């Protein structure tokens, strides 16, 4: 399997080449040349597999430059009950008839990002070891991505992590999670600014090509194809748990921000998984809901990005969205390049409202969308707790609210649980008047010693820190 750029760059690459890269050289995103189709006999065979073997089967369709035995070993090492808490890895919970919750948040940092990041950590260690290279990961986080990256990379040979976050702005639990890590290869940099400052500094460092090369700077952001393909696996796993045989269809409801999670659902559907609808849920930051309702994709300015109680979905533009538009336009790379390279930069928007392709988003690709606000979240958390005795976090509540608006008779709806409530305790207390449940292994987390360096939001100081700690 070879990979191409959504903007038409002539090079074709193998999996391990794009594994350690970010964007394609022309600014596009990498996608496989085609989506492998899974025939009914294969689907039937996969139904009985444990999660790590299902992961091996799916990844094997996309990776041709790691020997099978090593692929299998990486999957087996990643998806264990010890790391993910259950034998099923992503157990399905029935909420009521036709409505399910797929638990993706029982990994080390209690958010779904562990599902992909844990695999990425093992793939990075494998590939860097094979090449005899080192990588210094520089990132910006408002919470979930940074902790997932740190827990995936801690103690890994050949990898260091420098993670910037806005000083004092993550939830207390998220801060404790990240800053209590004592591993020598993990560096927490709390910058005295907001998340956008962190992101700007990461961009500025990455744009300094000489610095980037000298210090072997890389990223683990959500546009990484390996993260996406890892997420494809749990769509299959959820489907098998919700159905008895492969003639049935299901729908998925996905709390969305950067369009990474639901893009994996799109890939699963393109591979032939019987998915009726992909239901995209946003919070008040409704860039994507607006697109699927109107055909206009309008990125927001930083100042117009709301700070909400589902903060991991507070985005002004969706970094993975270009992948879907490329498919929507029949894989027209020239057009994708014009839209995302020129028009978006010039006008801050892409207008497909009068394009016949836009209708295909719903009719051919199965997408529908909806939006959920702070009061919707509180109401959903409350009613789910009172009626069903199930506590959901704010992001999952957004997904559940929009899922309920789009139920169809005879089609099971699977809501993806993207985080556990304990990560966002303040909103739970507001909704329920009580503290969220806390898994036993996190008792006393806030009292552990911390390892974090506070710096002004200054590119020079971040660079000096990296240079001084790069060995
Ligand atoms: C990252 C995240 C999301 C958004 O996922 P995308 O892949 O960016 O769409 C939703 N919920 C939680 C809890 C997250 O951490």
TrEMBL record:
Keywords: Lyase, Pyridoxal phosphate. Its cofactor is pyridoxal 5'-phosphate. InterPro entries: Thr_synth_N, Thr_synth_N_sf, Thr_synthase-like, Threonine_Synthase, TrpB-like_PALP, TrpB-like_PALP_sf. It holds the Pfam family Thr_synth_N. Its EC number is 4.2.3.1. Residues 3-79 form the Threonine synthase N-terminal domain. The modification N6-(pyridoxal phosphate)lysine is found at residue 113. The lineage of its organism: Bacteria, Pseudomonadati, Pseudomonadota, Betaproteobacteria, Burkholderiales. The keyword Lyase applies. It comes from Ramlibacter henchirensis. One of its GO terms (molecular function) is threonine synthase activity. This is Threonine synthase. Belongs to the threonine synthase family. GO terms for biological process: threonine biosynthetic process. Residues 91-332 form the Tryptophan synthase beta chain-like PALP domain. NCBIfam families: thrC.
């Amino acid at each position: 399997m070879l990979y191409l750029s959504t903007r038409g760059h002539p090079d074709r690459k193998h999996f391990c080449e794009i594994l350690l890269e970010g964007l394609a050289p022309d600014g596009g995103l990498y996608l496989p040349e085609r989506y492998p189709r899974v025939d009914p006999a294969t689907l039937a065979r996969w139904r009985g597999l444990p999660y790590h073997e299902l992961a091996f089967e799916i990844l094997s369709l996309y990776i041709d430059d790691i020997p099978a035995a090593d692929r299998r070993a990486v999957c087996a090492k990643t998806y264990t009950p010890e790391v993910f808490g259950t034998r099923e890895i992503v157990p399905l919970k029935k909420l009521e008839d036709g409505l399910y919750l797929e638990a993706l948040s029982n990994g080390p940092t209690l958010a779904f990002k562990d599902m992909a990041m844990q695999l990425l950590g093992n793939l990075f260690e494998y590939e860097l070891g094979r090449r005899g290279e080192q990588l210094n990961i520089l990132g910006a986080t408002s919470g979930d991505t940074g902790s997932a990256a740190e827990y995936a990379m801690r103690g890994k040979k050949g990898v260091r992590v420098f993670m910037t976050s806005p000083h004092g702005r993550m939830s207390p639990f998220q801060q404790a999670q990240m800053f209590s890590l004592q591993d020598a290869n993990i560096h927490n940099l709390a910058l005295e600014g907001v998340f956008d400052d962190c992101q700007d500094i990461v961009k500025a460092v990455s744009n300094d090509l000489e610095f980037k090369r000298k210090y072997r700077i890389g990223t683990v952001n959500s546009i990484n194809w390996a993260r996406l393909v890892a997420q494809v696996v749990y769509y299959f796993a959820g489907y098998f748990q919700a159905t008895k045989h492969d003639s049935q269809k299901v729908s998925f409801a996905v709390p969305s921000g950067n369009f990474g999670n639901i893009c994996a659902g799109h890939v699963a559907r393109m591979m032939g998984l019987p998915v009726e609808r992909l239901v995209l849920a946003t919070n008040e930051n409704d860039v994507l809901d607006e697109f699927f309702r109107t055909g206009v994709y309008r990125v927001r300015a930083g100042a117009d990005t709301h700070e909400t109680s589902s903060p991991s979905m507070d985005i002004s533009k969706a970094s993975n969205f270009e992948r879907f538009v490329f498919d929507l336009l029949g894989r027209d790379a020239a057009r994708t390049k014009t839209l995302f390279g020129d028009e978006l930069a010039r006008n801050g928007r892409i207008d497909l409202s009068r394009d016949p392709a836009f209708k295909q988003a719903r009719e051919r690709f199965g997408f529908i969308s909806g939006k959920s606000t702070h009061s919707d979240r509180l109401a959903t958390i409350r009613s789910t707790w009172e009626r069903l005795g199930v506590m959901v976090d704010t992001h999952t509540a957004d997904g559940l609210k929009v899922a309920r608006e789009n139920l169809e008779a005879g089609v099971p709806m699977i809501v993806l649980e993207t985080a556990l409530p304990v990560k966002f305790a303040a909103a739970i207390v507001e909704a329920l008047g009580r503290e969220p449940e806390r898994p036993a292994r996190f008792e006393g987390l806030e009292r552990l010693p911390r390892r974090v360096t506070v710096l002004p939001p200054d590119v020079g100081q971040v660079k000096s820190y990296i240079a001084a700690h790069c060995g």
